[in-house]
Amino acid sequence: MDTAAFLDHLRAHPLFEEQVAHVEHVPPRGAGYETLTNALHPDLEARLQAVHIRTLYRHQAQAADAAASGKNVFVVTPAASGKTLCYNLPVLDVMLREKRSRALYLFPTKALAQDQRRGLLELASPLGIGCATFDGDTPPQERGDIKRGARLVMTNPDMLHLGILPNHQSWSRFIRQLRYVVVDEAHVYRGVFGSHVANVLRRLRRVCTLYGASPQFICASATIANPREHIERLVGLPFEVIDDDGSPYGGKDFVFWNPPIIDQARATRRSPNSEATFLFGELVKGNLRTIAFARSRKLTELIYLHQGATGRR
Known about the structure:
Elements (H helix, E strand, L loop, with lengths): L2 H9 L8 E7 L6 E2 L7 H9 L5 E2 H11 L4 E4 L6 H15 L4 E5 L3 H15 L6 E3 L6 H10 L2 E4 L1 H8 L7 H5 L1 E6 L7 H20 L5 E6 L5 H9 L4 E3 L9 E6 L3 E3 L4 E2 L2 H14 L11 H13 L4
Parallel strand pairs: 4-9, 4-10, 5-7, 5-8, 6-7, 8-9
Antiparallel strand pairs: 1-11, 2-3, 12-13
């Protein structure tokens, strides 16, 4: 069932009350490739070939070149556009050229760090580059080995603030050789939480200065309206913004859904959560692969339970 057929199904549904306000079609686009100006280390090139990565999208090549030239880089492209390679390539390249170099990866959640670690190991392990996750779930007996031997450490801002920076003396070997700091999902760091993370990053930079290190930052984000302003306020350094997305995508249809008014006098509309639950159920019933984003775990559970109660799991 395509978008048009699903919308026709909704319009014929008894609960439909002209909620579709607008439909915007985005045509498909092919990939845009680019060649690196600065060649990667031969071992990394061979590893990319082994995992069937033979060409780079435009933004991937631009990000790797900008990092190789010594710039702090902020990659701002849509989801599933290959942003991970934008920071993995320059990090792994410098680690192959400088055997004592280190890198620190920051992710907003432990789950995301674990997920990214699995993909990174596919590239890094055959190259002899050790990477480890350091967070609240890391067993105490492994923490000492990570401090002494891991070249690439993946963590989150909370653990950086509470577990690494207050104990920087025991991390001195790692910090002294720190070449790159990667901040993924940078758009998450906004508001009060963002201001806290900004201070943690400044504290990290001060500790690095204490040990004679001056790491480059490579940050990645979903598309946002003010990328340069956001990242320079977050990190406190000038950045090169890479936002020329070269990844391909199929056609998309954006449907603007307006919950119907249930009380004209008060201009009260039906709950967006109820509408989302209805849409989710109809999509699942149509055997369409679906993902629903909710603002809280409780709301996610309520949507799931409602689908279960109606036999729509």
